[in-house]
Amino acid sequence: DDVSGEVIGHLMKRLESENILDVQIIPAWTKKRRPSNIIKVLCTPEHKFEIINMLLDELGTLGVRFTTFDRVCVERIYENTEIEIDGKNYPIKYKISYIKTLDQKQLVNIKPEYEDLNKISELTGLSLKKVQMFAQEKLKYFYQKLIKEM
């Protein structure tokens, strides 16, 4: 409850460069009605103590609670393509996620990678939303093709 936003921002940046799967920082209120933050870090069991030590060191917190969960993830593959904007081609990576059973695959989603969309937005001066629309139009073709193949 006494950690500044700058320290939390620094922690988040450090965590993102470590062996984590995800991090969430959630505003909260403590029992004494003090503003605070709940920090949730998802990591593999072998990195648990490394992350706990980082939290203790960076935050000066008096303790860390941890829980082990079972986790189910869909299968994912990454592909590359290009989108054309104003006559110029820009490379993008996209993720195809699917559920794999013994005899078939069921498509869950096809989505362009944020980092590529953001880079194209910066290069073209277009909003991220507009670049995303260009990418989704291109990926609609791949989606329809994958639906037929699966």
> Would you tell me which CATH topology of the largest domain applies?
Ubiquitin-like (UB roll)
| Helical segment count | 4
Q: What is the spatial order of strands in the main beta sheet?
A: 3-4-5
Q: Ends: how far apart?
A: 51 Å
Mean of residue pLDDT values:
90
Percentage of residues in helical conformation: 25-40%
- Helix and strand content put the structural class at alpha+beta
Instruction: Give the low-pLDDT segments.
Output: none
Assembly category: single chain
CATH architectural label of the largest domain: Roll
CATH class of the largest domain: Alpha Beta
Number of strands: 5
Q: What order do the helices and strands follow?
A: HEEHEEEHH
User: Mind telling me the C-alpha Rg?
Assistant: 20 Å
Number of domains: 2
Largest sheet: 3 strands, antiparallel
CATH superfamily of the largest domain: mk0293 like domain
Written description of the protein model:
The chain has 150 residues and is an alpha+beta fold. It has two domains: 5-59, 2-Layer Sandwich (Alpha-Beta Plaits); 75-149, mk0293 like domain (Ubiquitin-like (UB roll)), CATH 3.10.20. Helix content is 38%, strand content 34%. The chain has four helices and five strands; from the N terminus they run H-E-E-H-E-E-E-H-H. The strands form two sheets. The protein has a three-stranded antiparallel β-sheet with strand order 3-4-5, with helices on both faces. The chain has a two-stranded antiparallel sheet with strand order 1-2. Helix 1 packs antiparallel against helix 2 and helix 3 packs across helix 4. The longest helix has 22 residues, at 128-149. It is extended, with a radius of gyration of 20 Å. The mean pLDDT is 90.
